[in-house]
Amino acid sequence: MAALQAAYDNIIVKFLDNNVSLEYAKEWSVARVRPGPRRDDAPVYVISIAAELTGTHPRTLRIYEEKGLVQPARRNNNRLYSDQDLDRVRLIRHLTQEVGLNLAGVKVLLEVYERLEIRRSKHAITWVLERTERRRRAP
């Protein structure tokens, strides 16, 4: 909700900077910015807004997508990020900057997490070990 409030405030400021009445700005922005409750997986943020909300550069988000770490929705060739995508980007940043993992390590960790959470696999550790061994053998 903080992101939504910030977007709302930015719209008000832009209207006021252009000498539009405060009443009109509020009426316009409430009708367009606050449509009602939204699902966390609804893709709504373009890459520039997603980058600003996560404290990253848009190129960083593109790299994360290229590496398969995040998969934003696409509409008319535009990337659209959901709140879940933004949370995932924040987690990736935490793992790389605070924990010290590289992107390959983050990818493996996220795959294990998905196996445990989504598929409820009890053999996730075995899967990781087998996957690591296969990668070591590959040229």
Description:
65% of the residues lie in helices and 6% in strands. A hairpin with a 2-residue loop joins strand 2 and strand 3. The protein has 139 residues and is mainly α. The radius of gyration is 20 Å and the shape is globular. The longest helix is centred in the middle third of the chain and has 17 residues, at 83-99. The N and C termini lie far apart (48 Å). It has three domains: 1-37, no CATH class; 38-100, Multidrug-efflux Transporter Regulator, Chain: A, Domain 2 (Orthogonal Bundle); 102-139, no CATH class.
What is the fold's blueprint, element by element?
Blueprint: H1 2-17, H2 22-33, E1 45-46, H3 47-54, H4 58-66, E2 73-75, E3 78-81, H5 83-99, H6 103-117, H7 124-137
Antiparallel strand pairs: 1-3, 2-3
Helix pairs in contact: 1-2, 6-7
